[in-house]
Model the fold of this input.
Amino acid sequence: MATVQLYARDVGHGTPLVLLHAFPLSQAMWLAAREGLTARCRVITPDLRGFGGSPLGAEEPSMDAMADDVAALLDDKGIERAVVGGHSMGGYVTMAFARRHPGRLLGVVLAGTKASADPAPARRIREAMAERALADGPAVLVDEVLPGLVGPSTRSRRALIFGRVRGLVQSAPPSAVAWAQRAMAGRPDSFDTLRGLGCPALVIAGEEDTLATVDEARAMADALPDARLVVVGQSGHLAAIERPEEFNEAVGEFVARCSPASA
Done:
């Protein structure tokens, strides 16, 4: 499968940690993670294909294509193994990476995501949103996606954070939005992938998340052979942005555990 060259920020030293962004955001969502984790590890935050500074390419929409892009990025940087994690859509890409490149994982972080495939009604909604994004631009995202991305605590108490998320949503390219929606609609169930994972995993859920619930996070943690579940209070779907201190502490401790030097 052909890959595209991903634009990525790469800061810090030590164990490599690759963080994959949520839909319909970009690597800009990881600002607080880069600031909070670079003293503990090497943080690599790519723009997934079509978003931010990365080209979309000509491949058919799939999580596998995105996962192979990440493997090619590691190749370009001379990194054999890394902790790979993702938020929401980035979690789907992480699970695809675990299917296709299991030997390259030191550990896995799954935040605000779920292992189940979309049922037919959800796939139809994604296709309709893809078509509307191409026809009308990002307004559909502001109306239909933005409200579910952050929890009520953030909307009522953290106006600056909500405004930042809104800005990221509004900057999403319609072509990438449509491609990613179709890729997510076609993703397979990943529970068998999780059951066979041969490395440690960290599962993070926002207490107020209605898109990927705590129960769905718990189901992933139960399926994984070696997993820790962290529930972040007063957070919706985007714990890394809404509650960055708690997110960074959990991820930093996990990466230290996964470090080859600690084995």
The longest helix spans residues 120-136. The domain at 8-117+187-262 is CATH 3.40.50.1820 (Rossmann fold).
